[in-house]
């Protein structure tokens, strides 16, 4: 599918960008330590420390995002645990309003996530977001996490796009830096990825307070293009 368009392609991350990161924080930092302690009959402190060490070892790798990998590592069915708590999955404020605006104004809308395919599938079903996107891709599908240039190369091979004619919104600095290295200049982050944590004071990329803050940015770019 060719996705070149007069309108720039808008590429979104999912967790912490379109969806409230509070769900993922709850799964990995609260619920999994409880389940791990119950299964392995250790103290909550031992469980938390063991999992923290696992997380540090695999952070920002493709394994980090794989429910199958974590199930094999910790002995807890991580995917089943996530689905059990799917009612906690929540869209960030302004998510639908922004996607509706982009759809109405015929922007190509892509979703590029590090969530594995199984996790992606149940979140899309729970939120009903799939219909908004022209392209949906998981890093598991291409074999590289978004933190690495190979992801962007693989994405371009599957779905050609012009990095100079797109916007990318993600809550993770290392991912944004990777996208910048690939040639994407219009990069934005999220000031408050989790509703249960305080907003960021500073970041190395422009931050959106609300997702709908992207709308006037796009409108201004359209006006400037008219007079170029």
TrEMBL record:
Q: Which InterPro entries match?
A: HAD-like_hydrolase_sf (IPR050155), HAD-like_sf (IPR036412), HAD-SF_hydro_IA (IPR006439), HAD_sf (IPR023214)
CDD domains named in the record: HAD_like
A Pfam family in this protein? Hydrolase
Q: What is this protein called?
A: Haloacid dehalogenase
């Amino acid at each position: 599918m060719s996705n070149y368009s007069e309108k720039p392609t808008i590429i979104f991350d999912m967790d912490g960008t379109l969806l409230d990161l509070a769900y993922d924080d709850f799964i990995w930092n609260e619920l999994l330590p409880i389940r791990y302690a119950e299964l392995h009959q250790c103290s909550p402190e031992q469980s938390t420390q063991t999992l923290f060490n696992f997380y540090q070892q695999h952070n920002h790798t493709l394994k980090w995002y794989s429910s199958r990998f974590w199930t094999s590592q910790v002995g807890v069915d991580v995917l089943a645990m996530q689905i059990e708590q799917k009612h906690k999955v929540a869209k960030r404020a302004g998510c639908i309003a922004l996607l509706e605006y982009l759809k109405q104004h015929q922007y190509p809308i892509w979703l590029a996530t590090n969530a594995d395919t199984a996790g992606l599938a149940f979140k899309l079903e729970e939120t009903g977001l799939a219909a908004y996107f022209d392209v949906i891709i998981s890093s598991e599908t291409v074999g590289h996490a978004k933190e690495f240039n190979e992801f962007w190369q693989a994405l371009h091979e599957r779905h050609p796009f012009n990095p100079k004619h797109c916007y990318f919104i993600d809550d993770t600095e290392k991912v944004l830096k990777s996208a910048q290295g690939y040639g994407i200049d219009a990069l934005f982050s999220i000031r408050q990825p989790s509703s249960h944590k305080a907003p960021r004071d500073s970041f190395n990329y422009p931050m959106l307070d609300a997702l709908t803050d992207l709308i006037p940015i796009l409108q201004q770019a359209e006006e400037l293009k008219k007079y170029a």
